Amino acid sequence: CVKKEVVCLLEELKKKRKILVTDFLYFVAGSILFGLALNSFTAPNHIASGGVSGISILLNYLFKTPIGVTIFLINIPIFLWAVSELGYQMVLKTIVATFLSSAIIDLMSLVVPVYHGNQMLAAIFGGALDGTGLSLFFIRGATTGGTDLIARLLGRRFRHVSMGKLLLSVDGVIIVASGFVYQSLESSLYALIAIFVS
Question: pLDDT digit string (tens) for 11-35?
């Protein structure tokens, strides 16, 4: 009887370890794609495509702050809010995913080539890499924090408003701000394209 319990416990631990390893691999792959989108395509071409990453791109342009560190710092109060509303277990994967992606974004900024060219291509490829990277986090039940998490938390209080509308509202403010920061209407329009592709 005790032997069966030990075997069951070992099998359970093996399953949990497999889940953790799979989560980690997905998070690393998603972070690399996300980092490539930001460092090679969107940030160097003045495309701040919404969300916390968009805010971080704008702050990087204005003050030369590292994008990854800025993403993580902006997310800290959002994490605290999420933990108080949803509980630590529900937010843990997102905290790990955000920390990992923030670190990889800044490390990649030192080595990845930067595309300076057609802004339309930058918006399309940046959006495609961004969306593919983020989908790897979503598949494993995590996000990279930011506006996705804010929309989820606000959605609990404002059930009559869809998550899509909440996300669009927050992203819209950032996109409009990017037009003022870069002093270019085109930057805002390319940001919309990048979000659509993503």
Answer: 889 999 999 999 999 999 999 999 9
The angle subtended at Cα 70 by Cα 65 and Cα 73, nearest 5°, is: 140
Contact by Cβ (8 Å): 78, 145: yes
Q: What φ, ψ does residue 184 adopt, rounded to 5°?
A: -155, 120
CA atoms within 13 A on the CB side of 170: 20
Q: What is the pLDDT of residues 138-193, one digit of tens each?
A: 899 888 888 878 877 877 777 777 767 777 787 888 999 999 999 999 999 999 99
User: DSSP letters along the chain, please?
Assistant: -HHHHHHHHHHHHHHHHHHHHHHHHHHHHHHHHHHHIIIIIIGGGT---SHHHHHHHHHHHHH---HHHHHHHHHHHHHHHHHHHH-HHHHHHHHHHHHHHHHHHHHHTTTS----S-HHHHHHHHHHHHHHHHHHHHHTT---SHHHHHHHHHHHH-TTS-HHHHHHHHHHHHHHHHHHHHT-HHHHHHHHHHHHH-
69: its two tokens = 């560190």
Contact indicator for 137, 27 with CB cutoff of 8 Å: yes
Rounded to a whole number, what is the largest CA-CA distance in the chain? 72
Quote the mean pLDDT of the chain: 90
Radius of gyration of the chain (CA): 18
